[in-house]
Amino acid sequence: DISNESKELKRNDQAYLLHPWGSLSENTNDEPMIIESANGVYVTDSDRNQYLDAIGGMWCMTLGYGNEDLALTMQEQAVRMPYYTPFGSMSNIPAVQLAKKLAALAPGDLNIVHYTNSGSTAVDSAIRFCHYYFNATGKESKKIILSRKDAYHGSTYLGASLSGKAWDRTCFQYMDTLVHHLSSPHSYRRPPHIAEENFCNYLLNEMEEAIQQLGADNIACFIAEPILASGGVIVPPNGYHQRAQELMKRHNILFVSDEVVTGFGRLGHFFSSNIHFGLDPDIIITAKGLTSGYAPLGAIILSEHLAREIKETHLKNPVFTNGYTYSGHPIACAVALKNIELMEKMALCEHVRSIGPYFIERLQELEKYPIVGDIRGHHLMACIEFRASNAYSPIPTLEDIAIAQAVDTHCQRLGLLVRPYESLCILSPPLIINEQQIDSMINILQ
Ligand code: PLP
């Protein structure tokens, strides 16, 4: 029967699987939740409980579950031609078509696409490209990467080194000589002596001092999520992005915008760097919503001016020795193309632009509860930060974290999946969510 089958699955999960961010400790008594089927914004577990998925899988299920057009596209491509090597001069039809489409959607002269398997491998590739560019143009000393505390840039060793979430930085030997972490632009947890209106200046002064200390000749790039996602939906203060970009341009430091979460409609546009934040980055990184989570795929979109400069140097070995067996995988590229076609047909970005403010407004109703410290977000990317007391703390306390965990457990019982992280409850529902579903999410949270 269902209950025995489900128990058996959970036993095997515990016996044979180490999950991402999973624990091998004997002390965890967390029972695995096995998701068996899904439709629209709802998922069903192996015990036949249904939940509204306010996490959107992992920020990625933008078109929602059970989309037959996406599934059929994958099937058709698998039958026609499931795979061929992308290396060197070999290519495939969906990869070419998708590259042309991404170039059309990306801002400015970002017209050259390099595929990867995921966000992490895209981050790694973007940094390798920055080093390749500076090596090629005779500035070999430019190697350091500026990143930020609270950033999340993935789980390769380099991605993890760029990430700045304190809790994750245990048990590993990070590449800290290559990476310099600036302060998090986290207004809610800013140092208490800094007034909110001075916070942007404080961050920019620190950035300028860091460049001076490290030496612009040693710095390759600044990698930044326009809104820090997993670090806690941290929206930098007004003016931060443009001033940071101006500083980087002045010092010939490349600006790499990690839009793995903020791209593909979550903020109401295919890319948010230019539209919401006035940026014209040298490289944009994308993944997740690119395929609406139906297949793993990432990409970096490079500025033509960088490519042109590299071409003009007439390198002896012009090869960018970076890539993966599954770069530009035909099934993943085909589903990404179909995803974009459907997003355009459904006017999904317009839908997010109209429903996003409603979502944030409804969420802000929760500010009245004393355990709620902060509510922040942008369109369909939001989080609630819990606090056990009003006392200032630069990091969440154990009591703050316990509240988030209790909220998570209770929501789950009531049929809502939220994502607890430290003292946060992160919300990133599928973009197809409607007002009524938002209302039921808020009711459960309430
Ligand atoms: N960059 C950002 C901003 C992310 O949020 C993530 C994942 O959450 C990544 C990179 C890594 O992507 P992936 O998990 O596909 O490797």
Give a structural overview.
A hairpin with a 4-residue loop joins strand 2 and strand 3. With 446 residues, this protein is an alpha/beta fold. The strands form 3 sheets. The chain has a 7-stranded mixed beta sheet, with helices on both faces. Strands 1-2-3-13 form a 4-stranded mixed beta sheet. The longest helix is centred in the N-terminal third of the chain and has 18 residues, at 119-136. The mean pLDDT is 95. The protein contains 14 helices and 15 strands.
Order of helices and strands: HEEEHHHEHEHEHEHEHEEHHHEEHEEEH
Low-pLDDT runs: none
Content-based structural category: alpha/beta
Q: Give the count of helical stretches.
A: 14
Distance between the termini: 35 Å
Q: Give the biggest beta sheet.
A: 7 strands, mixed
Beta strands, count: 15
Question: What is the mean pLDDT?
Answer: 95
Morphology: globular
Give the strand line-up of the largest sheet: 4-10-9-8-7-5-6
Rounded to the nearest angstrom, the radius of gyration is 22 Å
Bound molecules: pyridoxal-5'-phosphate
> How much β-strand is present in the residues?
15-25%
Oligomer: single chain
What is the share of helical residues? 25-40%
